[in-house]
Amino acid sequence: MTETNALSGRSWRSTALYAVLVLLVVFYLLPLWTGLVTSIKADVLATAPFLPPAPAGFTSVHWTRAVNALAGGLVNSLILAIPATILSALLGSMAAYGLTTLDWRYQVPILMLFIAGIFIPYQAVLIPLSKFWASVVPVSDLVGYVGLAGWVGDLVGLILSHVAYGIPICTLLFRTYYKDFNEEMIEAARLDGATTHTIYRRIILPLSVPMFAVTLIYQFTQVWNDLLFALVLVGPGAGAPVTVPLSQLGASLSEVGFGIRMAGAFVAALPTIIVYVLFGDQFAEGVST
Amino acid sequence: MRGKLAAYLGRLVRRNRVRADGGEVNANATRDGFVSDEFTASLPYWLPPFVVMGLAVYGAILWNFFLSLTDTSGFQTPNYANLDFEMYAKAFADPVFIGALRNTFALLVAFTVLCLVVGLVVAVLVDQGIRYENTFRTIYLLPMALSFVVTAQFWLWMYNQQNGLVNIILGVVGLGPYEWIGNPSLVLGAVVFALIWQFSGYAMVVYLAGLRAIPTEQFEAARVDGATTLRMYWRVILPQLKGATISASVVLMVFALKAFDFLYSLTGSYYPPKGSDILATMMVRQAFVANNRAYAAAIGIMLFALALVIVAPYLLYQYRAGEL
Amino acid sequence: MARLELDDITKHFDDDGETIVAVDDASIDIEDGEFLVLVGPSGCGKSTTLRMIAGLETITDGELRIGGRRVNEAKPRDRDIAMVFQSYALYPHMTVRENMSFGLEESTDLSGSEIDERVESATDTMGISDLLDRKPSELSGGQQQRVALGRAIVREPEVFLMDEPLSNLDAKLRAQMRTELQRLQEDLDTTTVYVTHDQTEAMTMGDRIAILNDGLLQQVATPLEAYHAPANQFVAGFIGEPSMNFFDVDLEGDSVVGDGLDYPVSDDVRAKLDTDALVLGIRPQDIELVEEVESGHDVAVTVDVVEPMGDENNVYLRLPDSPAGETFIANVDGRTLVDEGDDIVARIPEEAVHFFDRRSGEALRNREFDDEADVDLSL
């Protein structure tokens, strides 16, 4: 008697639990779902925003337009995000090696400076940064000497800026990883005659592959998603990463513009969504460190 | 901290001097031996990234600070000979600044606290040994992988006054429609809600890691002791999530300070919806639209100070706990 | 192969301005081909000493010589040593073959085929030839241990350093590896320094053992010397299982007197006692249990607890006047039948008794042991 009671109590609880969990799924996916169905409606107001269009009301025109409007930005974002991500991950791994595996005094204060760098509001460095690329190292002029358009230079400046400001978080990610390495293993390598350099190349780097995955995925998402630096250092124009034109998309079109807005949002987010779906665990590890 | 750093710099200088003279290295090595060996060996690894990062972060902040002491505006060249805190005084007399400051704090507090609460609740639910846990977790964290620019588009549509889903849902229970973005007294709340949607998944992941670090025996012991689920979480589990709460709230607050991208994207311009101007948006507008560079620099420095107030105790806490 | 000399080796650690002495003035000469065990409780400085020999820690003071050459400043790679670590410290991303050839690739100019040859002969020696292409994660603890040893012997170094290499193995495997290691060391005849906190390992493996406590070298001696003729009370208590029994006593006339103990000493023994405040030590194995008091060396006691171990019994005894809980141990044959609460007599033979200076701990009189035949028998 009591046993069946307890049992039904438990199953009732678990049903309620799953109901809440599914409701949460609805909550987190609803804005995306609404956006998705809206993006394929010829008339965005034809049905309720969360309902798909009637077969006759389906259109791919928003997507075509969005892709056309954002294609250049997508290419720029790729040119931006891939090298910036790889470079900052590599520098982060090096810094973490020099500050963790190699053991010397007062490395913690240096490390603190790296970590504090993660939390800097970019507004505090924005003017010097734009000034730096405009007058100290005028990349957009410099690339002119090798026959490239100014926006290429702007993009190079943007890449290097993302590298510089990405170093702190990459260093921290690798630091937490290297800290757990077996110290005796490094000592064994040293007794085996390995130099600092060979230890890094033959022991640390091969063992860092999982952390590189985490860092690359996290940092790629960060760089891809950024708007502020892109806006200030490149601005709208030929070199603009995808977030810049997306923020302008359909702004003047009121309700009617939402079809293309939603399609554009998906087009711009697609690379990050793909990366997230494929490597969600690494992304989770990146954010929770 | 500072004493240590000074001592360290002192050693650095001394060591370099010995090196420069040559020959004395060995005499020194018998005392410091591998410490200095390890140090020299480590330089090629951390020094280049450190210089790049140091210039980009700390060099730029210093430059920005000096700029904020000038009174550069328009297209003048900054005059670094005449420095004062005029821009800071100007800020506190500027109602726009005061408004932005108030909004910044409101956003910071409301967003962080609510995000933590939602994240904790979701984490506890996910931690019940459910099936498809990975799938649920992946879905809840998904919004965080999206750009502010992207999520702003979605929420603009959700908040649309006539046809937005939010007003449609509220309409079912006889509320609204509200002008979420257009009404200055509603917009900040709407922004906070959208940001919670985007970042509560992050708080969940951090709490989940914290919950997983608590040994199962404690849950069992509490249950054997006869604690109800609610009391067990309140008295046994929650206190142990202090570390997770601290680190999550620091990261969330810093996200809130950076909410520029979201607000910019709501209007596609440097002028965010009325009632939602925060320091981050005001600074960029002053710098690149109004061209009041010194004033913008001062706002930037104050934002930095705000971040420092949040982050410094956290780093110190981490340092003391030996987490770094 | 080489002689290894530690000459007044001292290590100071700097802990936030405070100086901690980890090793104080240790001098040990380790003969070519000798197996020396460094033993002591945790934190005694034995690992630090080993790491100084390896070059993983700097030497604050003193001189370290390998084969007569001062190596204080030499990098680990230039000392011609190989080390086996407690955690094995295998490279997880490399196969057994790669693990073992790594050191040869990094520190020698041997060609690829010469390296292969040496790796294969070392794996033959260790009996792990069939594991060459596995990664450490695919090996059992015992196999990893063998790979770690193989990685050391393949280098053919002057000196082997081993830091508690067996402590991660289960008891049975540990006993097996102990003999195997000993045989290996005898075959290779390489000078070996072996660190352990386990006195069984120290007693069974070492040609000589060096006992450390609190950074101070207590005694360097053969295992039997350390057991029968400890230099001081610490060594006496540390070596031997169960530990030696100690009684605080004072010299009064012809006897030493302590709580409930009045023990007559002969003139020979008395002559060696140059102070009144003493500690009397007797190994549990040397105490006999008898029925009746027959001489002054017999003490009436009560049985407190009996721990039967099968072949032997540890009998906890209490002197009539001593408070509950204060017991000493007699280790007797497993067939001796005694029960809790029994009143019996403990016989403490004078030839087996040790005396220590209560203040300095220094041994004043050790048990009689000079018979070579005795030594051979007990081996």
Architecture overview:
- Chain B: Belongs to the binding-protein-dependent transport system permease family.
- Chain B: This is Glucose/mannose transport system permease protein.
- The complex is a heterotrimer of chains A (289), B (324) and C (379).
- Chain A is mostly helical and 289 residues long.
- Chain A has helices spanning 2-39, 61-101, 107-116, 126-136, 139-145, 150-179, 183-191, 196-207, 209-225, 228-234, 243-248, 258-288.
- Chain A has 2 domains: 2-56, no CATH class; 67-288, Orthogonal Bundle (MetI-like fold).
- Chain A has 12 helices and no strands.
- In chain A, helix 2 (61-101) crosses helix 6 (150-179), helix 3 crosses helix 6 (150-179) and helix 9 packs antiparallel against helix 12 (258-288).
- The longest helix of chain A has 41 residues, at 61-101.
- Chain A starts with a helix and ends with a helix.
- Chain B is an all-alpha fold and 324 residues long.
- In chain B, helix 3 packs across helix 14 and helix 11 (242-257) runs antiparallel to helix 14.
- Chain B is globular.
- Chain C has 2 domains: 4-233, Rossmann fold, CATH 3.40.50; 243-378, Beta Barrel (OB fold (Dihydrolipoamide Acetyltransferase, E2P)).
- Chain C has helices spanning 46-54, 96-107, 112-126, 141-153, 171-188, 199-205, 223-228, 233-238, 267-272, 372-378; strands at residues 4-15, 18-30, 35-39, 61-66, 69-70, 81-84, 159-163, 191-196, 208-213, 216-221, 245-252, 255-258, 261-264, 277-282, 288-290, 298-308, 312-318, 328-333, 343-347, 354-357, 363-365.
- Chain C has a 6-stranded mixed beta sheet, sandwiched between helices. A 6-stranded antiparallel beta sheet of chain C has the order 13-12-11-14-20-21.
- In chain C, a hairpin with a 2-residue loop joins strand 11 and strand 12 (255-258).
- At the A-B interface, helix 1, helix 2, helix 3, helix 4 and helix 6 of A face helix 1, helix 2, helix 4, helix 5 and helix 6 of B.
